[in-house]
Amino acid sequence: MKKLLFIIMLLSSWHVFAQDVKISGTVNDAAGNPVVNAGIKVKNKTVGTTTNSQGHFTLNPNGIKLPFTVVVSAIGYDQLEVQITSAAQMMSVSLTAKNIMLNEVVTSATRVSQSSLQSPVSVEKMGQRAIKENPSFTFYDGLQSLKGMEAVTSSLTYKQVNTRGFNSTGNSRFLQLVDGVDNQTPGLNFAVGNLFGASDLDIESAEVIPGAASALYGPVAFNGLLSIKTKDPFKYEGLAVQLKTGLNHLGETGSGAKSISDFALRYAKSFNNRFAFKLNASYLTGTDWYANDYTDISATTPVGQRGPNNPNRDALNIYGDEVSQNVPGAGVVSRTGYEEKDLMNYNVYSLKLNGALHYKISNDIEAIYQYNYGRGTASYTGSSRFDLNNFVLQTHRIELKSSNFFIRSYVVGENSHDSYNTRSLAQFINRDWVKDLNGNVVTPDKADATWFNRYGAAFNGTVPGITANNQATARAFADQGRFLPGTPEFAAAKDASIHNYGLSGAGVFSNSKFYHTDAQYDFSKAIKVFELLAGGSFRKYSMFTNGSLFDDKTNKIKIDEYGSFLQAGKKLFNDDLKLTASIRYDKNENFKGSFTPRFSAVYTVAKTHNFRASYQTGFRNPTPVDQFIHLNVGPITILGGAPGNSAGLNVYQNSFTAASVNAFGAAVGAAIGGGASPQQAVAQNKDLLVKSNVAYIKPEQQKAFEVGYKSLINDKLLVDVNYYHSTYTNFILNTVVLRPTAPVLGTDGKVNPAAAGEVANRSVSAFQLYTNASDKVSAQGASLGLTYLIDKGYIAGGNATLSSFNLGTANINNIAQYNTPRWSTNVTFGNSNVSKGFGFNLAWHYQSAFDWYGTFNGVRPGRINAYSMVDAQINKKLPHAYTTIKLGGSNIFNKYISQAYGSPAVGAIYYVALVFDSPLK
Fold this sequence. Notes:
- This protein is mainly β.
- It has 14 helices and 50 strands.
- The longest helix is centred in the middle third of the chain and has 16 residues, at 444-459.
- It is elongated and about 100 Å long.
- Residues 1-18 form the signal peptide.
- Keywords: Cell outer membrane, Membrane, Receptor, Signal, TonB box, Transmembrane, Transmembrane beta strand, Transport.
- It is a multi-pass membrane protein.
């Protein structure tokens, strides 16, 4: 420790003994106008500053020996390098305007900076200019325009992104980093979109790696990576304010237009190029999209008999009607449910607060502390529709970095506050008001049985004054005393259940955390013969849900993971060929370790034509939820796949498959309809039941091969084309089984009649288990992207992606579903300055229809129709006022579209925004 303190003190005081250097000057454009907020940075160092409103700057790079190089950069201009040879050199720089940087610098592909043209794998980037001119309501919505990107909207404040298939509303296969910090919630184990991300004003860039990135980023980056970088307060000083207001819910039946507002503020300041800080605050609020698809999806009712008059109706966005029973004489009947709008809090918001302190210990070493606080409300589609109500996510990050290393530690903590499960909520409200035949309200544990008894009595004519053999009349009688939405009784029951956690209520409680440390060192400058990069990480999960998600009231759940990687690169044949090899090893304490290698080659022809090929591997450890969730959602219990999680339940060992139970139930019903007694029907069809064979959970694996070509032709046309083929094993999935109390098999090895009788009487317990697919499947895809710089500042771009899933001989019921359209296409067109500061941008997105599989619908398919939508904005820039006025809209033709089955249909948002951005120097 004494040696470390001595080194830090020596580095901090180095500038005292070195020659004092003071550089000053101006930065203008070709017309002589000052360039505001241009970056002035010493090449390969952390030292830098920015220009003020007159284009002036002063830089004191003390401690750096002459000569050295300064890099001058600004949005919309070509980068320029200037050689510094004098201790008091004056600079007068003129930057050449460029509408768009087609050859961007990226870092995520190899974890070191390089040209995007020579990236060894596919990489997409949304730079600061694209973020500013994005026509969507938020920058995060605009990510869907990138090549190969998929997006799913569960809520106005929650959108999920993905690449290359196997999409889901909660995507734990896709890593999202903000300044290197994993933005996932510890309890849910996936990033909740941009609900807790960075403010649009503070985002400098976003990079996307489609496909496996585990070789460099570990287990979460199984399907890809989104890396968001925020603005450095040394480089981006000043005050920025955004005022945005808009409307949604236009043209909806039974609903008028609703307002949306988005306020954001950023302030950053540096002192003597040694210390800097930044503060961010943003607040978005509005009325959420409505999930109001009332399609009858009853699994036990033939399709032709489904609908609003089906006594066993199970509507998609009505909850509580999942509880059903075979009522003698009346058939299978479901309880009356409640619509989602009466259960969900649609008044959503997102509050983001951020502060960061940056201190340069020396000219090449910088220390950072950053704190992020996010609080918000969103609707999330999982096994149910969850209301993340006043959910809080906090992160603390400390980092020490230089041009060739970093060490970073952070902690992510959550507090679910008033979050709840709407399906469970409806079921619990339904158990608060049921009366027996004598008019007495029964206890909740007897409510369902009593309701069905009332229904049967009314239908079979044993209740005086009630017409027999009438399903509607029987339901009305059974529903007497029902709490109606809008009444004090309903509100009281709802509030009580939301704040009751675990098996006795709908509340979801989580106060979980994870701690993470990662480090990286670039040995390339020391070795010189070849490039060498090494790094590692350690993570500890500390879960606490007080029994509401996990069985952790007394059994504390803590999980350790660690990993390390090595990457070597070498240029050959006059630097035209670049070979890179990476390998990573990761270990979770509950599973065997996994090696994930990656090999790549990039060959450059005639300087601008770059051909690439890579072999990549990916893996994903089961998340804490995959391993330990223990959640009762009414008619089914969701159970994680760790062996100890199901101890004493005898469900992995003694259960029937859901498919065989459905076949058995249909056959028994048909037999009874044909005149057989229930006992005879069971005996005749019991052998249709199949004992389940579900394995405990283990990590997923992927192997992928990719080839691509990327070229910049005449500095005007950017071409990017690629093809990939991936194979997958051990996909983590959910399977439903039903467990009787009796052994499923008799001593003769055949189905036990007693167990079959329990199934017929619906007295079995249903479980949704986490396990792995035993089958091997593959996917392939190709994409083409074009960007063309037209004369007079017009920019046209387009991309198309073809995705294909090959099931082979695998069982569709045993595979995590692909959930990806076969075709996805984007077209963009814009000009940042058509005339006199006016600009515009258009973005069109189309995707083909496909079947969506998810736990919300019991892993049964739901159709997502083909759709297209257009985002557009026009803007007026007022340079002397540092202000931009934007008028725009997302999905401007107001076509209501669903992106995931069970999630809400999303319509247009029309907005006007005022953005003030001044260096204040």
